[in-house]
Design a protein that fits this description.
alpha/beta, 445 residues, three-stranded mixed sheet, 56% helix
Length: 445
């Protein structure tokens, strides 16, 4: 049972608790176990056929309402019972017919801050969005972590879907593409051949295909082969292909030569690190998005001695905004200096290690390392595990696969944890404080 299903179900249960009478909830709903997600429906296992019949007859409408109102991206419920012929999963997975990764509506061209370091790649992305398949194909975008590749990729997708709704657009990550490829080859449900056909057709029958962070396919020749054929099919039909990576195409030496040469045959556009003026402009926009006006001297202080990662800059801004709310003080240079005392002196700290992050997380949440790395599903331990994964990704810039190996989780779970904590930090002050307190403890070790 995946922690990801646990999180979805726990959120849905909170809604169901308010919709179903307490006796029925504790008798039937609370004991359901999430085992899968199929076609945007959560699959819940009941303890017996009698329980399943009671739920489907008397409580299914309320359960569906709970799913719809939970805001977790699902729209239905399937009840199963282990060993039952009546309550078995009969619905074939159709995930390959869905769009790729859900787009963030905030990632638009209007919200992208343009400076001397990125004006070329911005113009190229705009050109592709205005005339998909006609101008630069493929468009290959590369740049370091946190410089805005994903923002531009999603801006292209958002723009095309808004201005040209008749076109079929898929934006996905290299990890999701890889996972779907593996599922199509080795899926336990249904015919392997049918799954393979659906996967192949999905990625060859689109008008625009955008794949983020393709460098993660290093030495994975099966998925490279699958993408090679999809690429050729789309390219021959003048369908737009956009790819992003953290390095130039010629440096992807672990990718097959025939893929690299195809990437190099289009337009290669790099995102350079932002200069000071662009960093300040980015922070000013981020502050306005959060409905805060930050003085110019504070913005200049935030970018001083910072690296080029926009996410790090935004993290500094979030820390100062949170300190302002916590202490009920206006944002000032003095407040910012106090709030960032630890992070400003990061260069003076000893090297941060995965072991240091695990140790600080366990100490903060008062749990053991076995709890953190084990399979305990208690909510507070799951949250600690997610925060630990987030901090490893944020502070060490390790690939998801490497973090997964350290935490004994697969990289998909790590990616989910990272994104979930990042989202919670944005909307939940308590989670934001927990993360920053653990970060501070790590830096003090």
């Amino acid at each position: 049972m995946s922690e990801q299903f646990d999180f979805l179900w726990n959120t849905i249960k909170e809604r169901a608790k308010t919709l179903v009478n307490p006796i029925s909830y504790s008798t039937f709903i609370e004991n359901l176990v999430p085992v899968d997600v199929v076609n945007k429906k959560i699959v819940l296992q009941a303890e017996s056929e009698l329980a399943a019949k009671t739920i489907t007859k008397n409580h299914m409408d309320k359960l569906r309402e709970a799913v719809a109102s939970a805001g977790v991206g699902l729209n239905g419920v399937i009840i199963v019972v282990e060993g039952s012929e009546e309550f078995t999963l009969q619905e074939a997975p159709d995930a390959l017919e869905e769009t790729g990764v859900q787009l963030d509506p905030r990632f638009t061209f209007d919200s992208y801050v343009v400076g001397t370091s990125n004006k070329f790649v911005f113009a190229a992305a705009k050109s592709v969005a205005e005339a998909p398949g006609e101008n630069f194909n493929p468009l290959y975008i590369y740049g370091g972590t946190g410089l805005g590749k994903t923002h531009l990729m999603q801006a292209i997708a958002n723009e095309i879907m808004q201005k040209k709704p008749s076109l079929k657009v898929i934006y996905t990550t290299s990890e999701k593409f890889l996972n779907e490829y593996v599922d199509s080859m080795y899926a336990k449900k249904g015919s392997g051949r049918d799954n393979e056909t659906r996967f192949r057709n999905r990625y060859r029958n689109v008008d625009v295909l955008l794949i983020d962070d393709i460098q993660f396919w290093a030495n994975k020749y099966g998925v490279q082969e699958a993408f090679f054929h999809a690429f050729n099919e789309l390219f021959s039909q003048h369908k737009q292909i956009v790819i992003s990576s953290d390095c130039p195409a010629k440096d992807l030496t672990t990718l097959e030569e025939r893929l690299r040469t195809r990437f190099e045959g289009g337009l290669i556009a790099d995102i350079q690190p932002p200069d000071i003026e662009t960093k300040i402009a980015i922070l000013k926009r981020k502050a306005l998005e959060k409905r805060y006006v930050v003085p110019d001297d504070v913005l200049a202080f935030l970018v001083k001695n910072s690296d080029n990662n926009v996410r790090t800059l935004e993290g500094r801004l979030n820390t100062v905004i949170f300190a302002s709310k916590l202490h009920e003080e206006p944002i000032s240079l003095k407040l910012a200096a106090a709030a960032l005392q630890e992070s400003i002196n990061t260069d003076e700290q000893e090297e941060i290690t995965p072991e240091a992050i695990i140790r600080a997380t366990c100490n903060f949440f008062n749990i053991t390392q076995n709890d953190l790395l084990g399979k305990n599903k208690r909510q507070e331990i799951v949250r600690a595990r997610q925060i630990c994964a987030y901090l490893m990704c944020d502070m060490l810039a390790l690939p998801l696969v490497s973090v997964g190996q350290i935490l004994r989780r697969d990289h998909t779970t790590v990616g989910y944890s990272r994104d979930k904590v990042a989202e919670l930090m944005r909307v939940n002050d308590k989670v934001h404080k927990e993360v920053e307190d653990v970060r501070s403890a790590i830096l003090k070790q």
